[in-house]
Write a structure and sequence with these properties.
The protein is α/β, with parallel strands linked by helices. The protein has 3 domains: 223 residues, HUPs (Rossmann fold, 3-Layer(aba) Sandwich); 77 residues, no CATH class; 65 residues, RNA-binding S4 domain (Structural Genomics Hypothetical 15.5 Kd Protein In mrcA-pckA Intergenic Region, Chain A, Roll). 46% of the residues lie in helices and 11% in strands. The chain is built from 19 helices and 11 strands. Strands 1-6-5-2-3-4 form a 6-stranded mixed β-sheet, sandwiched between helices. The chain has a 5-stranded mixed β-sheet with strand order 7-11-10-8-9. Strand 8 and strand 9 form a beta hairpin. The radius of gyration is 23 Å and the shape is globular.
Length: 406
């Protein structure tokens, strides 16, 4: 079966949509290509659980794919997991997530439209829709949840990697965690979508939605659903960039903070970030790799990446200003005059300073920052938060958060 003929520009955009940063398409790339060319206005969505007030550049990859559909004239939906966030996605988690309250979820979600609006358009000729999944998940009855669960087996759930590893480690698995893929899967049914987009780590959950749609559950007609999985961005530890793993470059970071975080990345992340976030072509990536092979200082390539990210999520002017500020502060060893000051007192610890200055919001965050190597005392990584400070000491959080003890 051949694809219908598309206008040249639309064909190029469609090919880019099907190829760039696509790990897998279910059931097949060809089948989705035919659907895209059919003239039917497909309904496409990606979901985001508000377990934090910040979206990061890993989320940006999904939003970019939504934008590609939007530019081709398809209906796109950003789903806020206002209900599923209270369950907690067990994907890749070695322990049960902490349960969030409805109030916490609502507060976190309030920041999402403005951040997502940097990439997809909520106004204009083909505006994106914003939906909250508590609208259709909260009213589900116990009988309906049992009906949904009858489409899956316990064996299917237990075969998931994170559950197998927990069983081997003797760690508990909450019964509610089995419900998460059912609830995410029902998002597709309730919205009657044609396509769902998510990272490769979400494959099980997204295919659960495909199973429910094909089964025609709870009075909904049976329907095919396409699933697009995208590559995952990793942090310096090699783990997926996420709200729980740390190493996030957030969409609402200031230009200076975003620039500094990029400059703190390990050199081996330069090319993946250039490809996935900035969308460089294969020819451009080959050129960058050649520059590295020829012995060019990776710092220059990292500067280009940092400027590209700041320009993308803020503006070219912000990128230039952030680069100049970074150079002035770090390459030239200058300390800004307006660095916050903590008054010295006996028994003052690094943890006290972080909390009092607002560089950390809790003792838990202090510990996370130290584990990630994100706190330095006089340019030396901190391993003990209870280390006493002295007058003249300089505490740094990452590349940009500075604090002077006087």
């Amino acid at each position: 079966m051949s694809n219908p003929v598309l206008p040249t520009n639309q064909k190029i955009l469609t090919e880019h949509l099907l190829r760039h940063n696509v790990a897998q398409i279910y059931p097949t790339t060809h089948a989705l290509g035919v659907a895209l060319a059919s003239g039917r206005k497909l309904r496409v969505y990606a979901g985001f659980d508000p377990t934090s007030p910040h979206l990061h550049i890993g989320h940006a990859l999904l939003l970019e794919k939504l934008r590609q559909f939007q530019e081709l004239g398809f209906e796109v939906i950003m789903v806020i997991g206002s209900f599923t966030a209270m369950i907690g996605d067990p994907t890749d988690k070695t322990a049960t997530r902490s349960v969030l309250t409805a109030e916490q979820v609502k507060a976190n979600a309030a920041t999402y439209p403005a951040q997502a609006g940097k990439i997809i358009a909520f106004d204009g000729p083909n505006p994106a829709r914003l939906e909250f999944n508590d609208r259709w998940l909260s009213p589900l009855t116990l009988a309906e949840i049992i009906t949904l669960s009858s489409n899956f087996t316990v064996q299917q759930m237990l075969e998931r990697d994170m559950f197998e590893s927990r069983i081997e480690a003797g760690k508990p698995i909450g019964l509610h965690e089995f419900l998460y893929p059912l609830m995410q899967g029902f998002d597709s049914v309730a919205l009657d979508v044609d396509v769902e987009i998510g990272g490769t780590d979400q494959t099980f959950n997204m295919l659960a939605g495909r199973t429910l749609m094909k089964a025609g559950v709870l009075g909904h007609p049976a329907k095919e659903k396409f699933v697009i999985t995208t590559s995952l961005l990793t942090n310096d530890a090699g783990k997926k960039m996420s709200k729980s793993e740390g190493g996030m470059i957030c969409l609402d970071d200031s230009p200076e903070e975003m620039f500094g975080k990029v400059m703190a990345l390990s050199d081996d992340l330069i090319l993946p970030y250039q490809e996935l976030v900035l969308g460089l072509s294969m020819a451009q990536l080959v050129d960058l790799k050649s520059r590295l092979t020829a012995g060019e200082n990776p710092r220059q390539l990292k500067v280009e990446l940092a400027q590209g990210l700041v320009a993308k999520f803020h503006s070219p002017g912000d990128a230039k200003t952030a680069a100049l500020a970074f150079d002035a502060r770090f390459r030239d060893h200058q300390i800004p005059a307006n660095v916050p000051i903590i008054a010295f007192r006996p028994a003052l610890t690094i943890q006290d300073c972080l909390l009092e200055s607002g560089l950390a919001s809790s003792k838990t965050q202090c510990r996370q920052l130290v584990v990630q190597g994100g706190i330095k005392l006089n340019q030396t990584a901190v391993t003990d938060l209870l280390t006493l400070v002295s007058p003249g000491d300089l505490i740094a959080k990452g590349k940009l958060g500075l604090l002077k003890i006087m």
